[in-house]
Amino acid sequence: MSTILVTGGTGTLGRHVVDRLRADGHDVRVLSRYSVPHAVDLRDGKGLDAALEGVGTVVHCASTPSGGDERAARNLIDGAQRTGVGHLVYISIVGVDRVPLRYYRAKLAVEQQIERSGLGWTTLRTTQFHDLVLRFLEACARLPVLPVPAGVSDQPVEVTEVADRLAALAASAPAGRVPDMGGPEVRTLPDLARAYLRATGTRRPVVSVPLMGKAYRGFRAGGHLTPERAVGRGTFEEFLERRFGHEAGLSGGPGAGLSGGPGVPAV
Q: Membrane-spanning regions, if any (predicted)?
Protein backbone atom coordinates (compact mmCIF):
# COMPACT_ATOMS: atom_id res chain seq x y z
CA MET A 1 0.00 0.00 0.00
CA SER A 2 1.69 3.22 -1.18
CA THR A 3 1.88 6.47 0.75
CA ILE A 4 -0.85 9.07 0.18
CA LEU A 5 -0.08 12.77 0.63
CA VAL A 6 -2.87 15.23 1.43
CA THR A 7 -2.22 18.89 0.65
CA GLY A 8 -4.10 21.27 2.93
CA GLY A 9 -4.24 18.32 5.31
CA THR A 10 -4.97 20.48 8.36
CA GLY A 11 -7.87 22.39 6.76
CA THR A 12 -11.65 22.11 6.90
CA LEU A 13 -11.76 19.24 4.40
CA GLY A 14 -8.20 17.95 4.43
CA ARG A 15 -8.13 16.95 8.09
CA HIS A 16 -11.18 14.74 7.59
CA VAL A 17 -9.62 13.16 4.50
CA VAL A 18 -6.48 12.40 6.54
CA ASP A 19 -8.54 10.85 9.35
CA ARG A 20 -10.53 8.67 6.96
CA LEU A 21 -7.45 7.45 5.06
CA ARG A 22 -5.64 6.59 8.29
CA ALA A 23 -8.70 4.80 9.63
CA ASP A 24 -8.62 2.69 6.47
CA GLY A 25 -5.01 1.73 7.16
CA HIS A 26 -3.19 3.99 4.68
CA ASP A 27 0.19 5.60 5.29
CA VAL A 28 -0.65 9.32 5.09
CA ARG A 29 1.51 12.43 4.92
CA VAL A 30 0.05 15.81 5.79
CA LEU A 31 1.31 18.80 3.82
CA SER A 32 0.46 22.39 4.70
CA ARG A 33 2.37 25.58 5.29
CA TYR A 34 2.85 24.81 8.98
CA SER A 35 2.61 21.02 9.36
CA VAL A 36 5.77 19.27 10.54
CA PRO A 37 7.75 17.62 9.02
CA HIS A 38 6.19 18.59 5.67
CA ALA A 39 5.72 22.35 6.03
CA VAL A 40 5.52 23.50 2.41
CA ASP A 41 4.01 26.58 0.81
CA LEU A 42 2.93 25.25 -2.57
CA ARG A 43 3.11 28.73 -4.04
CA ASP A 44 6.92 28.60 -3.90
CA GLY A 45 7.34 24.81 -3.74
CA LYS A 46 10.35 24.79 -1.40
CA GLY A 47 10.71 21.36 0.19
CA LEU A 48 8.02 19.85 -2.02
CA ASP A 49 10.15 17.12 -3.61
CA ALA A 50 11.15 15.77 -0.21
CA ALA A 51 7.50 15.66 0.86
CA LEU A 52 6.56 13.80 -2.36
CA GLU A 53 9.36 11.24 -2.24
CA GLY A 54 7.83 7.75 -2.17
CA VAL A 55 4.27 9.05 -2.55
CA GLY A 56 1.97 7.17 -4.93
CA THR A 57 -1.16 9.35 -4.66
CA VAL A 58 -1.75 13.01 -3.85
CA VAL A 59 -5.11 14.37 -2.68
CA HIS A 60 -4.99 18.10 -3.44
CA CYS A 61 -7.21 19.93 -0.95
CA ALA A 62 -5.10 23.07 -0.48
CA SER A 63 -6.85 26.16 -1.88
CA THR A 64 -7.42 29.82 -1.10
CA PRO A 65 -9.79 32.44 -2.54
CA SER A 66 -7.06 35.05 -1.99
CA GLY A 67 -5.16 33.82 -5.05
CA GLY A 68 -2.24 31.60 -5.95
CA ASP A 69 -4.05 28.32 -6.67
CA GLU A 70 -2.82 28.08 -10.25
CA ARG A 71 0.82 28.65 -9.29
CA ALA A 72 0.51 26.15 -6.43
CA ALA A 73 -0.97 23.55 -8.78
CA ARG A 74 1.81 24.09 -11.30
CA ASN A 75 4.44 23.50 -8.62
CA LEU A 76 2.59 20.44 -7.32
CA ILE A 77 2.24 18.92 -10.80
CA ASP A 78 5.90 19.56 -11.59
CA GLY A 79 6.93 17.93 -8.32
CA ALA A 80 4.61 14.97 -8.88
CA GLN A 81 6.11 14.43 -12.34
CA ARG A 82 9.67 14.56 -10.99
CA THR A 83 9.03 12.13 -8.14
CA GLY A 84 6.85 9.60 -9.97
CA VAL A 85 3.45 10.21 -8.35
CA GLY A 86 0.91 8.06 -10.16
CA HIS A 87 -2.42 9.58 -9.15
CA LEU A 88 -3.51 13.16 -8.40
CA VAL A 89 -6.98 13.59 -6.84
CA TYR A 90 -8.43 17.10 -6.94
CA ILE A 91 -11.40 18.62 -5.13
CA SER A 92 -13.20 21.30 -7.15
CA ILE A 93 -16.54 23.13 -7.01
CA VAL A 94 -19.80 22.61 -8.87
CA GLY A 95 -20.28 25.51 -11.27
CA VAL A 96 -16.66 26.52 -11.87
CA ASP A 97 -17.45 26.41 -15.58
CA ARG A 98 -20.77 28.25 -15.25
CA VAL A 99 -20.37 31.01 -12.63
CA PRO A 100 -17.85 33.72 -13.63
CA LEU A 101 -16.41 34.25 -10.16
CA ARG A 102 -12.63 34.84 -10.00
CA TYR A 103 -12.06 32.02 -7.51
CA TYR A 104 -14.17 29.65 -9.62
CA ARG A 105 -12.15 30.55 -12.71
CA ALA A 106 -8.97 29.67 -10.83
CA LYS A 107 -10.39 26.31 -9.76
CA LEU A 108 -11.36 25.57 -13.36
CA ALA A 109 -7.88 26.51 -14.54
CA VAL A 110 -6.38 24.08 -12.01
CA GLU A 111 -8.70 21.33 -13.28
CA GLN A 112 -7.39 21.96 -16.78
CA GLN A 113 -3.75 21.96 -15.63
CA ILE A 114 -4.26 18.58 -14.00
CA GLU A 115 -6.00 17.14 -17.06
CA ARG A 116 -3.08 18.19 -19.27
CA SER A 117 -0.39 17.05 -16.81
CA GLY A 118 0.10 13.52 -18.11
CA LEU A 119 -0.45 12.20 -14.58
CA GLY A 120 -3.24 9.83 -13.66
CA TRP A 121 -5.96 12.08 -12.26
CA THR A 122 -9.38 12.21 -10.64
CA THR A 123 -11.47 15.37 -10.13
CA LEU A 124 -14.53 15.62 -7.90
CA ARG A 125 -16.73 18.71 -7.89
CA THR A 126 -19.00 19.35 -4.91
CA THR A 127 -21.36 22.05 -3.75
CA GLN A 128 -20.52 24.34 -0.81
CA PHE A 129 -19.84 22.82 2.60
CA HIS A 130 -22.19 23.55 5.51
CA ASP A 131 -19.26 25.28 7.21
CA LEU A 132 -18.97 27.85 4.41
CA VAL A 133 -22.69 28.64 4.48
CA LEU A 134 -22.48 29.09 8.26
CA ARG A 135 -19.52 31.50 8.00
CA PHE A 136 -21.40 33.52 5.38
CA LEU A 137 -24.52 33.77 7.53
CA GLU A 138 -22.53 34.62 10.66
CA ALA A 139 -20.91 37.51 8.82
CA CYS A 140 -24.27 38.76 7.53
CA ALA A 141 -25.86 38.49 11.01
CA ARG A 142 -23.51 41.12 12.45
CA LEU A 143 -25.86 43.76 11.08
CA PRO A 144 -29.25 44.71 12.61
CA VAL A 145 -30.84 42.79 9.73
CA LEU A 146 -29.58 39.64 8.04
CA PRO A 147 -29.17 40.46 4.32
CA VAL A 148 -28.86 37.70 1.72
CA PRO A 149 -28.54 37.92 -2.08
CA ALA A 150 -32.02 37.92 -3.61
CA GLY A 151 -33.09 34.97 -5.71
CA VAL A 152 -30.14 32.71 -4.81
CA SER A 153 -30.40 29.16 -3.51
CA ASP A 154 -27.74 26.81 -2.22
CA GLN A 155 -27.23 23.08 -1.81
CA PRO A 156 -24.84 22.65 1.13
CA VAL A 157 -23.12 19.31 1.66
CA GLU A 158 -21.60 17.69 4.75
CA VAL A 159 -17.80 17.97 4.65
CA THR A 160 -17.22 14.55 6.22
CA GLU A 161 -19.23 12.93 3.44
CA VAL A 162 -17.02 14.66 0.87
CA ALA A 163 -13.96 13.44 2.77
CA ASP A 164 -15.27 9.88 2.64
CA ARG A 165 -15.73 10.15 -1.12
CA LEU A 166 -12.25 11.63 -1.67
CA ALA A 167 -10.65 8.92 0.46
CA ALA A 168 -12.39 6.24 -1.60
CA LEU A 169 -11.25 7.89 -4.84
CA ALA A 170 -7.67 8.16 -3.55
CA ALA A 171 -7.63 4.43 -2.83
CA SER A 172 -8.85 3.63 -6.35
CA ALA A 173 -7.41 3.94 -9.84
CA PRO A 174 -7.47 7.31 -11.64
CA ALA A 175 -11.01 7.95 -12.89
CA GLY A 176 -10.94 11.37 -14.60
CA ARG A 177 -13.89 13.65 -13.91
CA VAL A 178 -16.24 11.71 -11.62
CA PRO A 179 -19.94 12.56 -11.04
CA ASP A 180 -20.60 15.71 -9.02
CA MET A 181 -21.58 15.51 -5.37
CA GLY A 182 -24.20 17.78 -3.87
CA GLY A 183 -26.07 18.12 -0.62
CA PRO A 184 -29.49 16.54 -0.09
CA GLU A 185 -31.57 19.72 -0.55
CA VAL A 186 -31.65 22.84 -2.67
CA ARG A 187 -32.63 25.60 -0.22
CA THR A 188 -33.21 29.32 -0.68
CA LEU A 189 -30.81 31.59 1.20
CA PRO A 190 -33.64 33.12 3.29
CA ASP A 191 -34.64 29.59 4.33
CA LEU A 192 -31.05 28.75 5.34
CA ALA A 193 -30.76 32.08 7.15
CA ARG A 194 -33.90 31.41 9.19
CA ALA A 195 -32.56 27.95 10.12
CA TYR A 196 -29.36 29.61 11.36
CA LEU A 197 -31.30 32.19 13.40
CA ARG A 198 -33.41 29.47 15.02
CA ALA A 199 -30.35 27.39 15.88
CA THR A 200 -28.53 30.31 17.50
CA GLY A 201 -31.56 31.89 19.18
CA THR A 202 -30.88 35.11 17.29
CA ARG A 203 -33.58 37.57 16.23
CA ARG A 204 -32.99 39.36 12.93
CA PRO A 205 -35.24 40.26 10.03
CA VAL A 206 -34.04 38.40 6.91
CA VAL A 207 -33.83 40.78 3.96
CA SER A 208 -33.28 39.72 0.32
CA VAL A 209 -30.97 42.20 -1.42
CA PRO A 210 -30.63 42.32 -5.23
CA LEU A 211 -27.04 42.54 -6.43
CA MET A 212 -25.30 43.27 -9.71
CA GLY A 213 -22.80 41.50 -11.91
CA LYS A 214 -22.26 38.38 -13.98
CA ALA A 215 -21.29 36.20 -11.03
CA TYR A 216 -24.51 37.10 -9.21
CA ARG A 217 -26.52 36.26 -12.32
CA GLY A 218 -24.74 32.92 -12.47
CA PHE A 219 -25.69 32.14 -8.87
CA ARG A 220 -29.30 33.27 -9.47
CA ALA A 221 -29.44 30.91 -12.45
CA GLY A 222 -28.31 28.02 -10.23
CA GLY A 223 -24.99 27.46 -11.95
CA HIS A 224 -23.49 26.29 -8.64
CA LEU A 225 -26.23 23.69 -8.01
CA THR A 226 -26.56 20.07 -9.05
CA PRO A 227 -30.07 18.92 -8.07
CA GLU A 228 -29.71 15.79 -10.20
CA ARG A 229 -26.74 14.76 -8.01
CA ALA A 230 -28.22 15.29 -4.53
CA VAL A 231 -26.36 12.33 -3.10
CA GLY A 232 -25.43 13.87 0.25
CA ARG A 233 -27.37 12.87 3.35
CA GLY A 234 -26.63 15.36 6.13
CA THR A 235 -28.91 18.41 6.21
CA PHE A 236 -28.07 21.96 7.25
CA GLU A 237 -30.29 21.62 10.34
CA GLU A 238 -28.41 18.52 11.46
CA PHE A 239 -25.11 20.36 11.01
CA LEU A 240 -26.43 23.31 13.06
CA GLU A 241 -27.67 21.02 15.81
CA ARG A 242 -24.22 19.48 16.16
CA ARG A 243 -22.58 22.91 16.14
CA PHE A 244 -24.92 24.76 18.50
CA GLY A 245 -26.54 21.96 20.49
CA HIS A 246 -30.12 22.94 19.70
CA GLU A 247 -32.82 20.99 17.92
CA ALA A 248 -32.47 23.22 14.91
CA GLY A 249 -34.72 21.23 12.63
CA LEU A 250 -37.91 21.07 14.69
CA SER A 251 -39.41 24.24 13.24
CA GLY A 252 -37.43 24.22 10.00
CA GLY A 253 -38.43 24.72 6.42
CA PRO A 254 -38.38 22.21 3.57
CA GLY A 255 -36.75 19.00 4.68
CA ALA A 256 -35.91 20.33 8.14
CA GLY A 257 -34.82 17.58 10.50
CA LEU A 258 -34.72 14.95 7.77
CA SER A 259 -31.65 12.98 6.80
CA GLY A 260 -32.02 13.74 3.10
CA GLY A 261 -31.39 11.29 0.31
CA PRO A 262 -30.51 10.86 -3.31
CA GLY A 263 -31.97 13.44 -5.62
CA VAL A 264 -30.38 16.85 -4.95
CA PRO A 265 -24.73 17.56 -4.52
CA ALA A 266 -16.68 23.05 -1.14
CA VAL A 267 -13.41 23.94 -1.14
A: none
